[in-house]
Structure formats: structure tokens, C-alpha cells
Design a protein that fits this description.
The chain is an all-alpha fold and 218 residues long. It contains 12 helices and no strands. The radius of gyration is 26 Å and the shape is globular.
Length: 218
Amino acid sequence: LHLKELRYFTISKVQGWYEKNIQDTREPAIKLIDPIFHHHKIKTYAIDLRNAELPLEKRALAALYIGLLAYTGGISAAELVSQYIKDMIDILIMPDTSGKVRIAVLKGLCGVCYLSYTNQNEAKENHLTEILISYLDEDEDSPEADSDLITVKFWVCYLMTVVCCNNTPCIKLFHEVGGQMLEKKLDSLSNMDWFGWPQNYAKLMFMLMGYSNVQADK
């Protein structure tokens, strides 16, 4: 009997402690998006992005990180990074930029412009369309061509689909600027090996521009 009483007393104590300390305890709400963190990191990387004394590779890496933070940081982060779009595009038009620098900045712009109509238009106002077209027009078979030029063009195709998403004026501008050259370049790139990519974005952009319908009518 004494043993039973002891067991009952022990169970009662444990149950009482559980009800007092554990049962009513709730996990703190997890912030899936922390605007303070994203805004702080964006502003930190923006300092590097705008620092002309830093190596171009480091500035391009800052552009990439800003894009990642814009992509993961929600609407407020996308609004914040809009002021840095011109700085990112300015790197793309610098002479003799390496393929790796171009790729990093293009990736950053993909994150900045993803599902943000405002940022897509900001990029358009800073002549991103013309720059992307000029990249596609570079001759990858030239002896002076960068070894990463094909990869650069693949990222150009992806960025084109991003900035044209739900943005008819951008599609029209690509038509106006690119003309038949753009159609030929996208057609050529669509026939290349896109292994490792979720989609063949040259083919997707080709269809988005309506070129497949034009060819079908010929």
C-alpha cells in the first residue's frame, strides 16, 4: 500500500509539474520573413555595390546577394532594392566585364525583378532591355569570346522571362529593340543543351514573344 501511495504521489507531482510548466507553453511564432534582417543586409551589401574602389567581382557578388534578399524578403524588400537597380545595371555596361561578373549581376536582377512590376519597369527605364539584347548579339564563336558567354546568354534568357512576366510593355519593347535578330538568337539558344536548368528558357521566351505562332503562319 505504501508503494502504491508513493507511485500515486510521484505521478501526481509529475503531472502537476507538466501542467504548470509544459502544457500551456506554446512555441513562439516563427517569422518566415524578417524585414529588419532583410533590410539591414540589403543596405549592407548596397554599400559594397556602390563602392567603386572595390574589385568588380566583389561588387557583383553584392548585387547577387541583394537579389537573393529581395527574392526572399517579400514586398518591402523588393521596394527597398528598387533604388539599387541602376547600380546593378551600370556594372553590366562596364567595358571588359568578365562572364562571372555578368552572371552574378544577372542573377541578382532576376531576384530583384521577380514578380515585381515596379522593379521590372525600373530596370526597363535603365535600359536593361537594350543591354540584354546586346549580350545575346555577342558572337560566342569569336576567339575573344568569354568562356562563360553561353552561360551568360542562358541567364539573359531567364532574366528576360522574369521581366516579361505579366508585363506586356516589356514584351513589346523586346520586339521593337530585338527585331529578327532576337528571334534568331532565341531560336539558336533553344536548340542548345539546357541540362541542369528547370526549363529551356530560350524556348520559353521564344514562345512568349509569339515567334512560334509567326513561324507556324509562314
